[in-house]
Design goal:
Layout: E1 2-6, H1 10-21, E2 25-29, H2 33-40, H3 51-60, E3 63-66, E4 77-80, H4 95-107, E5 116-119, H5 127-140, E6 149-152, H6 162-167, E7 172-175, H7 180-192, E8 198-201, H8 203-232, H9 239-248, H10 268-282, H11 287-311, E9 318-322, H12 337-347, E10 351-355, H13 360-367, E11 372-373, H14 377-381, E12 386-389, H15 394-397, E13 411-414, E14 427-430
Parallel strand pairs: 1-2, 1-4, 2-3, 4-5, 5-6, 7-8, 9-10, 9-12, 10-11, 12-13, 13-14
Helix pairs in contact: 1-3, 4-5, 8-10, 8-11
Bound molecules: nicotinamide-adenine-dinucleotide.
Residues 6-12, 29-32, 35, 69, 81-84, 96, 99-100, 103, 120-122, 155, 157, 159, 266-267 line the site of nicotinamide-adenine-dinucleotide.
Length: 436
């Protein structure tokens, strides 16, 4: 069996390296030639733990990296993992996937193989039937379900654990018709993940499952963030003890209950926006989803107003931000809440210095010389009037009084509550802890 994966980003490259390191005959395809060159040399274009190791393993076996989509011609399974970013109105921008489907359709036109195409990219319900299928049929001059298989296969991996999640998913969702193609794909996944539940449903339900998943996770985060704001007003209250305890209730579950500055990243904000837009189109008022988003947007204002209350007018104040990646163990800053904080500080003419163990280059691409970049945490903190811990990188958990010695005014806002036990000699605020 030969497998093609179109789009070598976080999802596609993780899948490419995992399948090829297992010995499958894989061809990874991306339109970005520079990206392909790096990947062919065993270098990941972004930081993701264990990815390079897995990629190098694959390259030693039967992995081929190419930029020409027509090479899918002799592949049995074709996974589509191109980006579906949000457009200015908040809906998903389908232009990338439409382009990819156009070239894919043309590429399979003269092929004798009975390909199965699996769409992993996140798309709103109806996209498969109304957009993807017609483009493929028109350009391939073939019929879906008869000449080729078309299956919705949403992806649930998390960046920073993408390889583990690709190897051990919690579920596999297959949306489409009960055809011979579906049977083949079900067989493939049963062998690949023997003990993982496989949910077979129709396209629109599979598409909706992905949005249900992410909007529920966002809801949990906004819920705990709202509680954390209340806790902050109750002297001595501790949001972590609350989260830990409610998380023990199996009806609730402990994950995604870490209070903080709000959710960010390449998926939750865009998927929430897309679902809200989509709900409105269906005529449903997305009251809860709107509230979840609203809490998230306002969460940053809580942090800014705390800084304002303690420092006065923020103009020209020297503020250090520790962590710009949207979560630890990634260099991805797409829709990172720390990036949004910097933007809001720049509007207030704050003198911003940042540190991040992995994401400095990506941050530089956004802010150029508008902010200062420090390679060492010590340098980022030196002379600062306020340090804000945004991302829970392990190295920040080790900070002690000694590291904050060179601050001008010792104010620390710890959005992740990682230094609460350090008895810091500073004006220290842990988000979600009521100061006694
Ligand atoms: N990143 C995540 O954590 C995650 C998790 C689950 C689902 N998803 C979804 O999966 C999809 C991919 O996400 P990502 O973060 O991996 O995207 P990404 O933007 O990191 O990567 C997409 C890749 O596709 C390539 N590409 C674009 N057009 C192409 C074409 N016509 N042919 C070949 N390659 C092409 C781009 O060059 C890029 O390398 C999105 O729909 C996203 O919402 C992402």
């Amino acid at each position: 069996m030969k497998i093609a994966i179109i789009g070598l980003g976080f999802v596609g490259l993780s899948l490419t390296s995992v399948l090829s390191s297992k010995g499958f005959n894989v061809i990874g395809i991306d339109v970005d030639k520079e990206r392909c060159k790096k990947i062919s040399n065993g270098i990941s274009p972004f930081f993701e733990p264990d990815l390079e190791k897995s990629l190098k393993n694959g390259l030693k076996k039967k992995l081929q990296i190419e930029s020409d989509v027509s090479l899918v011609e002799d592949c049995d399974l074709i996974f589509v993992t191109v980006g579906t970013p949000q457009n200015k109105t908040g809906s998903i921008d389908l232009s990338i996937i439409k382009n990819a489907m156009l070239s894919l359709g043309k590429s399979i036109r003269n092929s004798k193989k009975q390909h199965t195409i699996l769409i992993k990219s996140t798309v709103v319900p109806g996209t498969m039937k109304d957009v993807i299928l017609p483009i493929l049929e028109k350009n391939s001059k073939k019929k879906a379900g008869k000449d080729f298989g078309l299956i919705s296969n949403p992806e649930f991996l998390q960046e920073s654990t993408a390889i583990k999640d690709t190897k051990f998913p919690h579920a596999v969702v297959l949306g489409g018709y009960e055809t011979k193609y579906m049977k083949k794909v079900k067989n493939f996944f049963t062998k690949l993940h023997p003990n993982v539940p496989i949910i077979i449903t129709n396209h629109q339900t599979a598409e909706m499952i992905k949005y249900a998943n992410n909007s529920f996770l966002a809801t949990k985060i906004s819920f705990i963030n709202q509680l954390s704001n209340i806790c902050q007003k109750i002297p001595g209250a501790n949001v972590d003890d609350i989260a830990k305890t409610i998380g023990l209730d199996p009806r609730i579950g402990g994950l995604f209950l870490n209070a903080g500055p709000g959710y960010g990243g390449s998926c939750l904000p865009k998927d929430m926006k897309a679902l809200i837009k989509f709900a409105k189109i269906t005529g449903v008022k997305p009251i809860l989803l709107n509230a979840v988003e609203d809490v998230n947007i306002k969460q940053l204002e809580e942090i800014i107003s705390l800084a304002k209350r303690k420092l006065g007018n923020l103009e020209s104040k020297k503020i250090t931000i520790l962590g710009t990646s949207f979560k630890p163990n990634t260099d991805d800053i797409r829709d990172s809440i720390a990036i949004e904080l910097i933007k809001r500080f720049l509007k207030r003419k704050v003198n911003v210095t940042i540190h991040d163990p992995r994401a400095i280059n990506n941050t530089k691409n956004v802010f150029k010389d508008k902010i200062n970049y420090a390679k060492a945490v010590k340098d980022a903190i030196s002379g600062s009037q306020c340090v804000i811990i945004m991302t829970q990188w392990k190295q920040y958990e080790k900070l002690t009084n000694n590291d904050f010695k060179q601050m001008k005014k010792k104010m620390i806002i710890d959005c992740r509550r990682i230094l609460v036990d350090k008895q810091l000699d500073a004006d220290y605020y842990a988000i979600g802890f009521g100061k006694e």
